[in-house]
Amino acid sequence: MTSRIYLALDTTDLAAAKALAKRVRHHVGGVKLGLEFFCAHGQAGVREMSALGLPVFLDLKLHDIPNTVAKAVRALAPLNPAILTVHASGGRAMMEDAKASAPPGTKVVAVTMLTSLDATDLAATGVAGGAHDQVVRLAELARDSGVDGIVCSGAEVAAAKAAWPKGFFVVPGVRLPDDAIGDQKRVVTPRAAIDAGASILVVGRPITRAEDPDGAARAIGATL
């Protein structure tokens, strides 16, 4: 069975990213490459990572007018990412165009609310209600737009799945009980996220900062 753990390689160091991916490749289902990595290495860096044989989750969180996002997705199409993110707050038309422009094998998932935010942050940007309400609203909008799923915290994934039973749910910000939460505000354990309905988990620091990354990946996988 393919692991449901995607390793978050949030780094500008290509050699380190490749070395780490090679080290844990038998205990993760793929690698997530974000904006930090992409700005440093671009499509060439993504191709180098793809050559390792692991599915690539390209986490660029695209958010612009529909036409611009559609053109960006088409520009990324030769990379054939397994998963590509856009922001749900970009609206229905933007998400529709992103999905229509993506390669057939790419899952387009919409980011609902960053796990570094909480209700206080929402209020500061003029959004009424708590994280739960915002995630459910955006999950329903994403569902209606035709994308494949959403990114949300483990705290909201059960409610999102109830609203969208066939959705694909990406849960970042997972931590083992003894892990430091860092800059995350809404975290759950890997097992709790899976039980609540997560399709895949994005795990970074609990693996990348471990003394034994491969052992850490195996330990997390053993809890699922």
Task: Explain what you see.
By secondary structure, this protein is α/β, with parallel strands linked by helices. The protein is 43% helix and 17% strand. An eight-stranded parallel β-barrel has the order 1-2-3-4-5-6-7-8, surrounded by six helices. Helix 3 runs parallel beside helix 4 and helix 4 crosses helix 6. The longest helix is centred in the first third of the chain and has 16 residues. The model has no long low-confidence stretch (mean pLDDT 92).
In a few lines, what is going on in this structure?
This protein is of the alpha/beta class.
Please, how many helices?
10
Shape: globular
Q: Biggest sheet: strands side by side, in what order?
A: 1-2-3-4-5-6-7-8
The SS-based structural class is: alpha/beta
State the helical fraction. Answer: 40-55%
H/E element order: EHEHEHEHEHHEHEHEHH
What fraction of residues sit in β-strands? 15-25%
Based on DSSP secondary structure assignment, what is the total number of beta strands? Answer: 8
Mean pLDDT, to the nearest integer, reads 92
Largest sheet: 8 strands, parallel, barrel
- Which oligomeric state applies? single chain
End-to-end distance, in Å? 12 Å
Low-confidence stretches: none
Using the CA coordinates, give the radius of gyration: 17 Å
